[in-house]
Amino acid sequence: MRRILFVLLGSIELSCVNPFAPALDTNPSGSNSILGDQRTVEGVFQNFKQAYLFRDTTIYGALLASNFIFVYKDYDKGVDVFWGRDDDMRTTYGLFQNAQRLDLVWNSTIAMDGDSVSLTLTRNFNLTVTFNASDIMRVDGYANISLERLQQSDNWRITRWRDESNF
Fold this sequence. Notes:
Elements: H1 2-15, H2 41-54, H3 57-63, E1 64-74, E2 79-84, H4 85-98, E3 101-114, E4 118-132, E5 135-148, E6 157-165
Parallel strand pairs: 1-6
Antiparallel strand pairs: 1-2, 3-4, 4-5, 5-6
């Protein structure tokens, strides 16, 4: 009798499991996570790649410090152009909305200088932007990136990104 009672109670408990509402994963850095640990430089670049792959401004925005500055060279005018975090988020959102696919490959780090709370590095990248089957743009170059955090246990945030690409 006791065995039948346990089987019935177990059946009732299992019948209440909704396969369309699985339990919330409370361990975001678990072994199944596609996101990197942003306390490491490599984790920052992994998250950068994932933000572009999934065209996700939430992931991308978590990479940028509140005082973020983006710099690129306007070759037509021969001047450097600067914009802040808000402009960068709007521009990146537009790119994410208009591209069908973004393939970002981070290659080797060319130079790195800094310490455990402030770091500047230059890294080679290749970006393929697919707007549609007949409109594909390839960008190659270097990203000169400054990262900062208050203490070693905090996540790195990008404070400055100077784009040194062929675009």
